[in-house]
Amino acid sequence: MTEATHQAVAAQNRSGKLTVPGKLKTAVDLMLCEGSRRADAVMAAGMTDHGLREAFKKPHVKAYCNAGLQVLRESERARNIRRLAEIRDTGNGTPAVNAVRALEQMVERDGEAVHPDSSACLAHHRHPQPDRRRR
């Protein structure tokens, strides 16, 4: 009987192709489920920040993360709708208008599969205006 090659011995402890194994899965799950920052997640999982960043370049790791994000979005959806309704009902100017707009867009997306328009994003993200003063 022949001895196993060095490569065969090393391959015995590897995970299968296109899986998200051990430490990587732990780090990604910490970020998704507990909201951990990347640096904290890799430290808790026992891996390096560089290793996690490199793993996120792989399509199957991105797919695992995106699937987890979709689950998170769906599970938080009811609370988000309730909170938007509370903000709307305060009648407090701009936040109330933005809450109504967000609620209406949710209805449109659910009923007609409409993509959110870019103007909704502008209401939430203020970009600094360039300094136009003469020097």
Folded structure, characterized:
- With 135 residues, the protein is mainly α.
- Helices cover 69% and strands 0% of the residues.
- It has seven helices and no strands.
- It is elongated, with a radius of gyration of 23 Å.
- The chain starts with 5 loop residues before the first helix and ends in an 11-residue tail after the last helix.
Short description:
The protein has 135 residues and is mainly alpha-helical. The chain is built from seven helices and no strands.
Task: Indicate the topology.
Blueprint: H1 6-11, H2 22-34, H3 38-45, H4 49-55, H5 59-90, H6 93-112, H7 118-124
Helix pairs in contact: 2-3, 2-5, 5-6
Principal-axis shape equals: elongated
Radius of gyration: 23 Å
The helical percent reads 55-70%
> What would you call the structural class?
mainly alpha
Alpha plus pi helix count: 7
Given as residue ranges, the uncertain stretches (5+ residues, pLDDT < 50) are 113-132
How far is it from the N-terminal to the C-terminal residue, by CA? 84 Å
Strand content: under 5%
Overall pLDDT level? 76
* Largest sheet report: none
SSE order, one letter for each helix or strand: HHHHHHH
How many strand segments? Answer: 0
Which descriptors apply to this entry?
mainly alpha, single chain, elongated, 135 residues, 7 helices
